Amino acid sequence: MSNPPAAGAPVAVVGLGQMGSGMASSLVRAGHTVLGVDPGPPSTPEGVDRTELAGALQQADVVVLSLPGGDQVEQVVEQVRAVHTPKLVIDTSTCDPTDTRRRAQLLADTGHVLADAPVSGGPSGALAGELTVFLGCAEEHLERVRRALEPLAGRVTHVGDVGAGHTAKLVNNLLCGIHLSASRTLLEVGERSGIDPARLLEAVNAASGRSGVTEVNLPRWVLSGTFDSGFPVGLMARDVDLAATVAQELGASSPVVRAAREMWAQLRDEVGPQEDFNRMVKR
């Protein structure tokens, strides 16, 4: 499986939500025949052929997964295992690294390859083909996976073997969740002190307290009042919970991690899982 997919070669995208639709469109722009698979009602992006998973697996040697979680990934992996033609499965979903390593072994036993490539950048990044990818795969498959990801990503960081990508994504989202939780205090202190929040952010972003949250999330989605990042509270609460579980299993947890887990679960219960995740800062 060392050859990269040729331009025009069929690629299956399983999951046509906001992220999957954007990735499918980027693959179409790159000249691929794109087979979209989704049992739900979302609209089909222009240039994408909607089909069933079985049909997509007959035509495409590269399968990109953009699914809500591990249960859905597991179902697809089971179907891939039954196919005799070798497939490269690129999982951009966010999953438990232990489960990812197990799935990779199951697929390897039947002649297939699994790479975990969770992404950051939101729906806009997916549509523009400018996602940041946390890649986990064996060195022997690295070049092929990188080439397959070219239409989707502005940056690909090979973190390590299978499972490392999902580990990195979980740690990233955990830190983002912690930073958002802390930024709630930043804005509340500013408001109660009578300080213009934009000026307070300007000061912080010129100093050591800055983060991706203060530099991007707060000005773009919070202070603007739009709260339309495309990433919901429910998914962030899930990711923080999973990251906290992984940290606990590795003996690497902390009071800060545990507090973030509680805060995100509480926010999900208060505002609902569909609200934008930046509501953590200002409800």
From TrEMBL:
The active site is at K169. Residues 11-160 form the 6-phosphogluconate dehydrogenase NADP-binding domain. The keyword Oxidoreductase applies. Keywords: NAD, Oxidoreductase. GO terms for biological process: organic acid catabolic process. Belongs to the HIBADH-related family. This is NAD(P)-dependent oxidoreductase. It comes from Ornithinimicrobium pratense.
